[in-house]
Amino acid sequence: MPDVARTLRSQLTRYACYGVLIALAVIVVATLATVLLAGEALTAANLLDAHRDNVGLLVLDLLLPLVFALWGQYVGVLLSDRAIAFARDDTRRLQADRALLEARARRADDLDALTGLANRAYFVERLESAVAAANLSRSRVAVMIIDLDGFSEVNDQFGSSNGDRVLKSVARRLDAALSEQALVARFGGDSFAVLLDPLRSAEVLDTVARRIEHELEPPCALDSLSLNLAGSIGGAIYPENGRDSHSLLAAAEGAMHRAKTQGGGFALVTARESLHDAEMHSLSSELRAAIEEDQLVLHLQPIVDIAADRVQGVEALVRWQHPRRGLIMPGDFIPRAERSGLISELSNWVLKRALSSAADLHAAGWPLGISVNLSARTLLDPHFPDALAELLAAVDLPSRYLTVEITEDTLMADQQRTLDVVTRVANMGVHISIDDFGTGYSQLAYLKRLPASEIKIDRSFVEDMLVSRTDLSIVQATIGLAHALELRAVAEGIETESQAERLRQLGCDYMQGYYIGRPMPEDKFRDWLGAWDLYHASAGGPAGPETRSNHSA
């Protein structure tokens, strides 16, 4: 803008010169006319005499150049000021357009790419602000967690694209019912969250829960099918059930899981809620029987080396084949095991069965490593490394084929005791993986002390990285951090070829997800392995067990 002004101001002298030239032209014409009207010849002497003898011409000689010079200067100033005003208006318009685009970009980063609702990061940010404000004003804030019942079956039976359609339908219903009085967000997967700020009374939560149940009641049309939707809802109130956003969310999720164990509906955390009531005792008996009577089943999900396009290992995932309720996902019964004190028995069952499956695969010619998730309580048990050594010896499986996955939250439960147990396990040759990396609140100074082998990037970042610059930056930074610490980077939740290709470009080491293969029973996994080898053999790629290296090596 200053350069434009200087350029325009430089034109002022030109307009002044134009004025002087016009004045001189007028004087010349007036002088010629005076001599001709006097009947004299047009000589230099007669022209000079006309100026000397004619007062009018003398006045023109003195004033007209000055007047026209001032006129030219005025015209130049007027035009330059008008041009500067136009340029200033255009600049302001461009700045306003840029601010609008930046605001829209920031807003896009706050939205869930699939549903258009607020995303998890934005919801947590708003919740933290609401809790801080409520602390100052002595008011109350509430959060609700909604988890769809049986949604995994929709994905398994009809595919993830139809699952996305269901999630969009649920999002529209929740937004239409609650957007005017609450913040509605997609919290991840098939979970949604609601923020009520401020909360007038606890009764409002019951009203909102009934409204949610009413909105979910109509069947969801899916082509020629009609699906019935239902959700389990948990609610928690600040400050009664949590003094910060993290504890408040944990309380609401706990209430949601309790509602799910009761068959769905709404559950609110109470100020003195007992974890050992009659329902918990009944649940513990069911789960204990499930472990003892072998109602649990193990599913295996392949993990692939991105660069080599080769199966490197599997992750062991437990399911509960309930005699009345059918197949129950781990998110629905592992919290029960933790609250009822059965998590050690459950972890022992999963480890024993996973190591046995890995040994069977080795015997069949597939020397794959196997990954198993462990809970905080297991890692706080000082006897766990000895028990693990016995399990490895029982199946005659080298320890390097086992990877133990630990979440960041688990690592922070009791840092020193966890570090001691994890170090003993790593010294046995077992590999350590930090699962769901980026979703916890661990300290890098503590993480770098852990004898870890890999970092697993949480699926919540991977699923939106192609549409969210923030998630893409997180994925890229996590891969860079892993490589800087000489660790492998493993991405979870890969569902599309585009995601896989982007991860390959970013230098990610391993990946797993529905795009590669769903969790499946061991017999179906063997069939899948055979089909994988056959495809890669026909395509000229690496095939056969002899070319496949161990995931944990």
UniProtKB/TrEMBL annotation:
Transmembrane parts of this sequence: 15-38, 58-79
Keyword Transmembrane: yes
PROSITE patterns hit by this protein: EAL, GGDEF
Protein name: Phosphodiesterase
Domain EAL: 280-533
Domain of life: Bacteria
Pfam family, one: GGDEF
Keywords noted in UniProt: Membrane, Transmembrane, Transmembrane helix
Domain GGDEF: 139-272
GO molecular function, one term: cyclic-guanylate-specific phosphodiesterase activity
Keyword Membrane included in the entry's annotation: yes
Annotated NCBIfam families: GGDEF
UniProt cross-references to SMART domains, sorted A to Z: EAL (SM00052), GGDEF (SM00267)
InterPro entries, A to Z: Cyclic-di-GMP_PDE-like, EAL_dom, EAL_sf, GGDEF_dom, Nucleotide_cyclase, Rev_trsase/Diguanyl_cyclase
CDD domains listed in its UniProt record: EAL, GGDEF
